[in-house]
Specification:
This protein is mostly helical. The protein contains 15 helices and no strands. The protein has a domain of 189 residues: MetI-like (MetI-like fold, Orthogonal Bundle), CATH 1.10.3720. The longest helix is centred in the N-terminal third of the chain and has 36 residues.
């Protein structure tokens, strides 16, 4: 088990280094010029040239990447080009806001998805199963922004129950901020709940034809008890994997929802930085998203091995 974890950690580190290269190269391929965006179109060529030299934008790409990576290893995310303030100071409150939104969505969607998946598997082939399948398929088919705008139209414009903008301020109380976050939470939960529910149902039904399951039925164990006591533990590994993937999506795919609802999170911060060509901020946000995605996938792999004894055996690959 220790060897497996060490291998996964090493692969995660290699993947993270690859992500740093990808993020750095991709951000430097963005169209436009940071110096022009900051100084404006009226700046003279001489002023632009001096400003680019001051920012280090004229240095070779490899040299800039090495300096950026060295600063990251020392915990320095750099400075914003537009505000000239340390990125770590401004990015932390945004990250906390994004994690808060993702965490509340996970608290709603994960238990709901697993419960609905078990319910659907327990009533396989019935009208309830078909209704849940159609609802999940509809939720997956609609893109996040469409669901978000539909929720705004119905619950904000028509009914007036929730605000159409989820702007959160530090002085707001918990219930006030939660009320402003209801619509983005629902918009995110619709998609991830559908994915996790379908995977839970499929994983449970895939083990229902095993001999030990048939033996349990022959002993007169009710179908619900067979699923929760026998099928669910053996179907836990793929369920954990899809839950981790969707939690990673909540962190890295939350950008669209934050933009639609003007939520002050990391995704909105990154979009604003792209518009201003603030490359260091975009790089920092992209790196944090990459770390979250890699970390959650690493945790899912380790948990899958822990809950499935067959994956811990020396002959698991045979």
């Amino acid at each position: 088990m220790g060897r497996y974890i060490a291998i996964r950690l090493a692969l995660g580190l290699v993947t993270l280094i690859s992500v740093t290269v990808l993020v750095f190269v991709a951000t430097n391929l963005l169209p436009g010029d940071a110096a022009t965006e900051i100084l404006g179109r009226g700046a003279t060529p001489e002023t632009l040239a001096r400003f680019r030299e001051q920012l280090g934008l004229d240095d070779p790409l490899v040299l800039r990447y090495g300096k950026w990576l060295w600063d990251l290893l020392h915990g320095d995310l750099g400075q914003s080009l537009t505000t000239q303030t340390p990125i770590a100071e401004t990015i932390w409150p945004r990250l906390v806001s994004t994690l808060r939104l993702a965490g509340l969505t996970a608290l709603v969607s994960v238990p709901l998805a697993i419960g609905l998946g078990i319910l659907s598997a327990a009533h396989e082939g019935t009208a309830l199963d078909r209704v849940l399948a159609i609802g999940a398929l509809a939720a997956i088919s609609f893109p996040e922004f469409f669901t978000a705008y539909l929720l705004i139209l119905v619950f904000s414009v028509k009914l007036g129950w929730f605000p159409n903008l989820s702007t959160i301020f530090p002085e707001m109380g918990f219930w006030e901020s939660l009320h402003a976050m209801v619509l983005p939470i629902v918009a995110l939960a619709c998609l991830v709940t559908a994915h996790m529910m379908r995977m839970t149902r499929t994983s449970i039904l895939s083990v229902m034809s095993q001999p030990y399951i048939e033996m349990a039925f022959l002993k007169g164990v009710p179908r619900g008890a067979v699923i929760t006591r026998h099928a669910l533990p053996n179907a836990a590994a793929p369920i954990i994997a899809v839950v981790a993937m969707n939690l990673a999506y909540l962190v890295v795919g939350i950008v669209v929802i934050e933009v639609v609802f003007v939520y002050p999170g990391l995704g909105q911060y990154m979009v604003d930085a792209v518009a201003k060509r603030d490359i260091p901020v975009v790089q920092a946000c992209g790196l944090i998203f990459g770390i979250a995605f890699i970390g959650l996938n690493l945790v899912s792999d380790i948990l899958a091995v822990l809950v499935n004894p067959r994956l811990r055996s020396p002959n698991r690959g045979r």
